[in-house]
Amino acid sequence: MPNEHETVGAYALGILDDAEATTFESHLAGCEWCAQQLDELAGMEPMLAALADLPGTGTPSLGESLSAKPAPRVVEKLVDEVAERRARKRRRNFYMVAAAGALIVSGPFVAVAANGGGDSDSGGSGTNRTLSADPAKDVFDQIPDKLTATDPVTKVSVTVAFQEKEWGVGLAAQISNVKGFEKCALIVVGKNGERETATSWTVPEPGYGLPDAKTDKAKKPLHVQGGASMDTSEIDSFEIVTFDGEKLVEIDA
């Protein structure tokens, strides 16, 4: 049997015999690396089904069971596809780290320059605009392109401000009428179905943007800031979802 680390793909595809699967599962219980790889390979069965229709593969049709062992050619194609998807993921992570670094280092200054058209302000006199204590709000206020939506069921409202960047798209959002305690994320959905998390946050018990809240802080909307590696032309919609998978509101781009 090959090295256990090299067996994770075969295990995910279900092509190990009972003895091999049992041995790998014993290894998996104590190997975090293999557990992560197996998680990345989750959901590969639909891809295998799609590959099954390729001519000459000798695999079952979509209407048949996928439990049979795929032909070597199919496995090779699948492995190549997984490798490409991992490479794309690494590239996305690299750009997201770069974007996050830019936002952390120069978030408020990005807001100042967004409508300024350059580094001149008031004829180059050196006069700076007054910034609030909330950099995300500054960015949100300065970006002109905005989309707004309110979900008829959850009543959560969001306005997303976005601008094209060299590395993708910069985002800032204003969220209202959201109750706590909740963990949420702003998701960018591509026209190809790809989903990227632009940013995430925790809503404390009082909530945000609630007109009838008991505290002034809870009455004010929440502002968050983030980014995604997609071009603006590739974006289909924006979503705010909870960590439990509930969609609070969606905006078509």
UniProtKB/TrEMBL annotation:
InterPro entries in alphabetical order: Anti_sigma_zinc_sf (IPR041916), Znf_put (IPR027383)
Name of the protein in question: Anti-sigma factor family protein
This protein's record includes keyword Transmembrane helix: yes
Region named Disordered: 117-136
TM region(s), chain numbering: 94-114
Coiled coil: none
Pfam families cross-referenced by the UniProt entry: zf-HC2 (PF13490)
Keywords: Membrane, Transcription, Transcription regulation, Transmembrane, Transmembrane helix
Comp. bias regions, Gly residues: 117-126
Domain Putative zinc-finger stretches: 8-35
Record bears the keyword Transmembrane helix: yes
